[in-house]
Amino acid sequence: MPSLTILDPRAAPRIAVTPYTLSADASGPGLRVGLMSNMFFDASKLLSAVGEALVDVLDSPVVTLYEFPNASLIAPPEMIAEIAANNDVAVTAMGHCGSCTSSATRDAVNLARAGVPVCALITEKFTEAGGFVARSVGMPDVPRVQLPHPVAGTGEARIAEIARLVAPAIVASWQTRVARAA
């Protein structure tokens, strides 16, 4: 006779919640900034523009672009370790659809777990999805900076404008220590 298993939806989560408590002093010269592209359409263009905008708001940052060529997968541990070893702060991008929002958010969580103050760039249409992903992997407070939607396909001038608009929020996300009850 077949059996029936009843699951209690109120059960405790299987993933332990890790509060995001990282911050960085972005005021000094030479801040090493890792920009991690999931290679969603125009993600690398956005991050390159972000790097240029950060040069305008920070004191001589050293900006490095990393590209992982699959927007629907998370970056491998070796890449996370390389970025963590060589950068003081990081930005992941881009959350512009469901799968790329998941990868950008999860990559941000993995960088945070490696000790790097980070933020994920997510468009306004996928902000809620990014929050769901962050909660589902146990770091609901990993910083996410909201972008207008769409970014992809809007042209280099618009992408540069978006990068200039969000650069101060990116810097603020690194400097703000977030620790809320889960």
Number of strands: 5
Principal-axes shape call: globular
Cα end-to-end separation: 42 Å
Task: Supply the CATH superfamily name.
Answer: Glycerate kinase, domain 1
SS content category: alpha/beta
Tags for this entry?
single chain, 182 residues, alpha/beta, Rossmann fold, 5 helices, 5 strands, 16% strand, globular
Give an account of the 3D structure:
- The protein is of the alpha/beta class and 182 residues long.
- The chain has a single domain, classed as Glycerate kinase, domain 1 (Rossmann fold, 3-Layer(aba) Sandwich), CATH 3.40.50.
- 39% of the residues lie in helices and 16% in strands.
- It contains 5 helices and 5 strands; from the N terminus they run E-H-E-H-E-H-E-H-E-H.
- The chain has helices spanning 43-57, 77-86, 98-113, 127-136, 156-175, and strands at residues 32-37, 62-67, 89-95, 118-123, 144-147.
- It has a 5-stranded parallel sheet with strand order 2-1-3-4-5, with helices on both faces.
- Helix 3 (98-113) links the parallel strand 3 (89-95) and strand 4 (118-123).
- Helix 1 (43-57) crosses helix 5 (156-175) and helix 3 crosses helix 4 (127-136).
- The chain is globular, with a radius of gyration of 17 Å.
- The termini are far apart.
- The mean pLDDT is 94.
What is the topology?
Blueprint (H helix, E strand, L loop, with lengths): L31 E6 L5 H15 L4 E6 L9 H10 L2 E7 L2 H16 L4 E6 L3 H10 L7 E4 L8 H20 L7
Parallel strand pairs: 1-2, 1-3, 3-4, 4-5
Helix pairs in contact: 1-5, 3-4
